Amino acid sequence: MLFTTDSLTAIVAFSTLPRVVFGAPALTFVSRNASLSYRVLPGDSNWPSDAEWNRLNSTVGGRLIRGAPLAQAACYATAASAASDACKSLQENWAMLDPFIADPVNVMGPYQQNNTCSPFLATSSGTCTLGSMSSYAINVSDAATVAAGVNFARKRNMRLVVKNTGHDFLGRSAGKGALALWTHNLKSAEVLNYTSSRYTGPAMRLGAGMQVLEIYKFAAAHGLRAVGGTCVTVGAMGGYTQGGGHGPLDASYGLGSDNVLEFDVVTMDGQHRTASPTQNGDLYWALAGGGAGNWAVVLSVTVRAHRDGPVAGARLSFARADLSHETYWNAVDAWFQHVATLDAQGLRGFRTMSRLTRSGFSLDMATLPGATAEELTTVLEPFYRSLEQLNVSLTTNEVSQQSNFLDHFLAYNTNNADTRNMTVGNRLIPRSLFHNATSLKLLTDALDTMVEKDNSTSEPIIVLLSSNVTHATAGNKPGDNSVLPAWRDSLFAVNLVLMSSERANWDTLASDLALMNSWQDRLRDITPGGGSYASEATFDNPNWKTDYYGDNYPRLLTIKQKYDPGFVLWNQPAVGSDAFRLGEDGRLYAV
């Protein structure tokens, strides 16, 4: 038996986000069956009984797991737990994603955790609740276990979410009272010789649970490389690919979504389907860029693979303290202009990840496949000269070549998840802005304000990702997938980050979120008609439809209504999410 007699009552007490994220009119009950106007929660009379949960557990071969707060056992089990070695160990590991990856319901998003069971706030009399995390999860193993979960949730009017690694700034893999389908352990991998009307060549079929570094290592072992992210623990065949997916190789081969050949999925009617350009083509189109966790449950993805070879890399930095305000920002401006010049000259494959902090500027990772160290040095030489003219001295300067992409990635990538209280925003900056002096000044002034002038107690970090993910780079044409069109015109993706203390209270988090939205608004004002990368933006952006989906939204909504007319999958701000509102009690209400 999965449950004790009072197993359900132990998890009835939940807390939730103390605000309505999307404004909506008062609930109108349009159905004679009131339960259809909202999703059920523990404690409701129509919440599944113990017997129903046990039958589901039997159906899925004992793979049903009851959700528990991540810090409960280590920090809240007894009055002495808060000071225990186990709690201290969890605190030390909290900033990395490993505890969340190994858990079927807990996710890294601070706004979804909501301090309901923080190891940093534990006291001898502290309380610990599940909060906005899912109530139960199925450790899915195949289409049958997924279908069982889908059908169970749909028939009982429950929230259903897909949880892979929990690496999601928007909290899309969490939901109060939800059943989570945990795909992290779907780790299959094989190399294929793929043939279709759109692509013939090497490919890999990868389970939804395969993570970035696992994919890079698997590909390298077969003399291949593949598009993936920079954070090694991201489940790259999950929400990463469905939302677009940028990474070190996107300037060579396009975004993650551009490289998908087909999806193996279970849809919300419980059916096992293939989604490709020739089978269920509309579903394929939506899955390839239209947002994470909203269309179907992905079991595996077949992606293009690319022949491996040498890759040149670089890193450099200069300190803010050594420079006047004007000189420092002129140096940042010189970097923007240099990348824009290289782009205009047609340099393909050059991709950079750099950061602006209160300490200074750092180019953490430059990637140029097929180049030697000398050739990459030549590419960077005009920027070196600009810095010399400004009397800016480099504190770090390294250029080298590795024999394959994996070795390059391991040599230069330092990016990993950080599950502290991090608030994230994003704006895609079109290449045209960097060829207009007035517009470029507006951008650097905005970044200056964010890093140096806004009075925030949280640490600001601006991540600048330069790519060239045009259709020519991706090898496709407009309309082949649902990637936000603004990606094709962008030269930089600007990620905005505020890092607050692990002990930050809700007022601090709410203040950070308000400030982040104001930053996004400022960048929107100087990039009219542009967009934002939804997977690294705010969940409560009132302009979410245009910013995150653009002109694709109407078609995406039609596809959502076709394959999931009951909105069994729901997250914010997914396509069609305004069919429900999230109440202050954490319940979903139909509108």
UniProtKB/TrEMBL annotation:
This is FAD-binding PCMH-type domain-containing protein. One of its GO terms (molecular function) is oxidoreductase activity. The keyword Aminoacyl-tRNA synthetase does not apply. Belongs to the oxygen-dependent FAD-linked oxidoreductase family. The keyword Oxidoreductase applies. Residues 130-308 form the FAD-binding PCMH-type domain. It holds the Pfam family BBE. PANTHER family: FAD BINDING DOMAIN PROTEIN (AFU_ORTHOLOGUE AFUA_6G12070)-RELATED, GULONOLACTONE OXIDASE. It comes from the Eukaryota. Keywords: Oxidoreductase.
